[in-house]
Amino acid sequence: MQYKIERGVVIPPEKQVKADSKYPIEDMQIGDSFFVPALGAKSLRKLRSRVWAAATRRAAHFDIRVTARIMSNTGVRVWRVN
Predict the structure, then answer these.
(1) pTM of the prediction?
(2) Which long-range contacts link 28-32 to residues 24+ away (Cβ below 8 Å)?
(3) pLDDT level of residue 34 (50, 70, 90 thresholds)
(4) Could you write out the three-class secondary structure of the chain?
């Protein structure tokens, strides 16, 4: 397969971090946390995985680390750790 070299193609801008977020990651201080209630979640492990994944993606844009734990079958709590 041959690839054609093209000149003058404008590079599109990178995707920007969504300004509004479901989780208040950038407003947290080290040791702060927030709670996400299970509200009908079928699996707390799945909820924890989804919340943690979303929180860490958001936190990465601000050079922040977070961790999440399942809390007594009621939901998930996320802490800022750095």
Answers:
(1) 0.73
(2) 28/64, 28/80, 29/80, 30/80, 30/81, 30/82, 31/79, 31/80, 32/79, 32/80
(3) very high
(4) CCCCCCCCCCCCCCCCCCCCCCCCHHHCCCCCEEEEECCCCCCHHHHHHHHHHHHHHHHHCCCCCEEEEEECCCEEEEEECC
Segments making up each domain of the chain, as ranges: 31-80
Per the listing, tokens 């070299």 go with 5
The amino acid at 10:
V
Tens-place pLDDT, residues 49-60: 999 999 999 999
Long-range contacts of 61-65 (CB under 8 A, 24+ apart): 61/17, 62/25, 62/26, 64/25, 64/26, 64/28
Is residue 59 within 8 A of residue 25, CB to CB? The reply is yes
